[in-house]
Design brief:
By secondary structure, this protein is mainly alpha-helical. The protein has two domains: 35 residues; 87 residues. The chain is 84% helix and 0% strand. The protein is built from five helices and no strands. Helix 4 runs antiparallel to helix 5. It is elongated. The two termini are 54 Å apart.
């Protein structure tokens, strides 16, 4: 079931077909029944109005949640980009050899982080996260030695 959610085109086509079939079945049933009386038609109008109102509220809330999630994701991406940029600049404090090595590691880390925002597959995301964690550990271990040798603010 989760695989079909990752394919929005297929999900749209299946949903569209199911809705079309439902409409056809409803029309076939409607033609076999007797015509509605005037008071039944008025009741049906009230029920239709309520259903359309609830549907519009549901659509509105769905769009609101999607927009807020998009804004939150944009904010997280921006914060991560700023943190990586700050780290890249602060490497200048270290000795030249260590700084060059850490810059290469930071570029490698950045190359691993970009696919996180473009992939749609959980398995690929897990692999990226594992490689990122390994890269973070390597970055940290390479920063600790020069930082301990230079005990200055």
């Amino acid at each position: 079931m989760s695989e079909i959610v990752n394919l929005p085109g297929v999900l749209f086509a299946i949903t569209f077909l199911v809705l079309c079939l439902s409409a056809l079945v409803g029309c076939a049933i409607r033609q076999r029944r007797r015509p509605l009386a005037e008071d039944e038609r008025q009741d049906l109008g009230v029920v239709q109005g309520a259903a359309v109102t609830l549907l519009s509220l549901l659509i509105g809330f769905s769009f609101s949640m999607a927009i807020s999630r998009y804004e939150q994701r944009k904010t997280f991406e921006e914060a991560e980009a700023n943190a990586i940029g700050t780290e890249y600049i602060r490497v200048d404090v270290l000795p030249a050899g260590d700084a060059a090595k850490l810059r290469r590691l930071i570029r490698s880390y950045l190359d691993q982080r970009i696919p996180v925002y473009t992939t749609r597959h959980d398995r690929e995301l897990q692999q990226i996260n594992a490689a990122t964690a390994q890269n973070q550990n390597e970055l940290w271990s390479n920063v600790q030695v020069p930082a301990m040798s230079q005990q200055r603010p």
